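Most newcomers find our protein records easier to grasp once they have seen one. Read left to right, the backbone structure tokens trace the chain's path through space. Once this layout is familiar, the rest of the handout is easier to follow. The record below serves as our worked example for the rest of this section:


***
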Amino acid sequence: MKWTVWAAALVCAAGVHAQSASPWQLGPFTRPAEGNPVVAPQPESRFTDPILRAPVQWEALHTFNPAAIVRNGKVVVLYRAEDNSGAMAIGGHTSRLGLAESADGIHFTRRAEPVFFPAEDGEKMREWPGGVEDPRIVEREDGTYVLTYTQWNRETYSVGIATSRDLEHWTKYGPAFTGALGGKYDHLKYKSAGIVTQVVKDRLLAARINGLYWMYWGEGAVHLATSTDLIHWTPVEGQQGMPLELLRPRTGYFDSSFPEVGPPPVLTTAGIVVLYNGKNAPGGGDPALGPQAYAAGEALFFALNPAALLKQTDAPVLKPELPYEKTGQYAAGTTFAEGLVWFHGRWFLYYGCADSLVAVATAPGQ
């Protein structure tokens, strides 16, 4: 899909930096006085893997980078869990998704076994042995849940799509861009995809804009894609036939190495609010943030043209500060935002801590 970009360029030229107290933002986010981290590893958990046909300690080492949704009056978190197989390195274990639910958004009860994992199915070659990683989830108008996640076979990766009616039984559809534009993106390496949502009564639902669903995706730069069914997606291209780059690295800021899409964006009266994760550069980054640390920021896009950037925060809205956010598998520190829900009139933001734990921060609703 080609996209007219001159309007977006004009908007960007007007100045994209906004102060953290701007009324368009979600937040400010604060950590609850007690309860964090909300999900931690449980080495005692066992699961008979359908590929290995043997018991594995599926959440023994790390539990992090969660998706979140409200279902039946509770917050449900789908979190990435790493077993104790493979190399002791980031990406060297097998990841599966566990499920935890909470009546207050802070204290969670967990399922004993994962609900989403590599199996003897059509996606095995894309998901084994690395696993399924870093989910985001939205609800469709008919109550179907749509999951975006990273398929990782330890050689290549892509954004996979899956759907479910109950968050336990899933249908996998493969990479989001398969067949798009004549197969142009069939072999692209890409990750981190959040589908635009909006608050409908007491929960977030996937939003249509100009008759289409929209998805912000990517790390290194943030791009855009559209869909008519939430399953098959087409990247939005610029005049040169390449995916539009909507957010890019900014020297001197928390996203100086690169930006990466966070939880599903939210369509508000001000525009589309995109919570995203920025990686700080080892040199020339934000001096108030450690080198290579991940922190969360926000960007605002025009509601009627999701490619048009209006504003962007200069400083992170959530950054590694507490010991469990800076001590773990990723020692440089992360507050990697990935799950966002509207619950009891407040925002609950779920994030990964140092690639090892799950925590939550909350904010008053607007």
